[in-house]
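Suppose a colleague, Dr. K., hands you the sequence of a protein chain of 422 amino acids and asks what its three-dimensional shape might be. Before reaching for any lab equipment, you can write down a predicted structure in token form. Begin with the sequence itself:
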Amino acid sequence: MVNPVILWIKIFFEIIRRIFSLEFLFYFLFAVILVAVMYRRMHHAKKQLYGLDARASGTIWGDVLKATALGFFGGIVGSILMVIAGVTLNNIGINYLWLLAIILFLVNPRYLCFSYAGGLLSLSYLLTGFPKVEVPQLMGLVAILHLVESILILFSGHLGALPVYAGLGQGRVVGGFNLQRFWPIPLVIMWIIPGAFLDRSAQGLIAMPDWWPLINSTFAHNPHAVYTMLPVVAALGYGDLAVTDTPAGKSRWSAERLAVYSVVLLVLAVVASHWEWVAWLAALFGPLGHEYLILKGQQKELRGEPLYCRPEQGVMILDVQPGSPAARMGLMTGDIIFQLDGEPVNSKWELNRQLAFRSFYVTVDYIREGKMERTQGRVPLGSGLGIIPVPEPGDTSQVHFNSKGLLARLWSRLRKGRHGGS
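The predicted structure, expressed as tokens, is then:
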């Protein structure tokens, strides 16, 4: 009998060997480049919105390296879970999964998620028999990917948060932070080789315990089939909007709930591989549970008390540019500036006007967490403090909670055209 500790050490090192093979790393580089493009767009958006130097908040490649390092960590954790669960790429309709996910993305960007595409594919199979997929395997894949995502969100979902003016409806505009992170993920997933190819794949086989796999497969009943590990490239993304909470608080809130969702879905997938009727629960819970999380998060922001809105007196700081005079003076997000060299300020226009006529050295009185504070520092003539204030009357929103995809926008235009023509 194989010592279980030795067994899983062998599996761990086999996963590492597959992930760090030169051939696989060459393909993985394409995912890193894709992620770099997304971070470049984020840096460009910050410069375009506020005229700030994106390099002051960190280099693009610095973000990419952090995301890649975390992606390797998440990929190793996810690969171990994939192997333990026995999730395989056989019979999960991976091509249909991607095609449906892209179609849903064109309807609404937030539907670019395997929870929706996987749930719809599973329901289609259960109702019509097409396409042929193993529902427990497919939903197990979805569950583990989301569990990895929840870990990555917890560690880094708040990093690089973009300050924005968010529209809450009825003309109300408040400050908030757009949370967007992307991670390239190297994954090792099981692949079952038919018995006819056994001789060519028998080297280096590892004897698995009797209870394995957790998620049964129809292939598992073939005594001549062989499981092997196949490295694949994936990318995970996270998008959210923090209005009633700090970026760190919102990402933690999202990560905790996504982890619970993932564990429940994984349990349903395991049970469904033993009792077929549970596959209906897994197929329904995948998309509906995920949609509940999204709607619950939006409800939290829309109905809660915004953190970053105009105070009765003073100017609240939404964000501070790294390396700016405000940063050197220790000013932070949420601080309320109410005096500049003893003169009251109650709008960002007053603040900018007073800075234009102040001496090289200024004194700033502000409120932090209900306490009055004072700081001093140098502000070069003609420059500002380097802050982004919360929106004030007349400011327009930059983001909204719901955005339509390409197909939805085309449909809206067609409907407007029909009504306009009639």
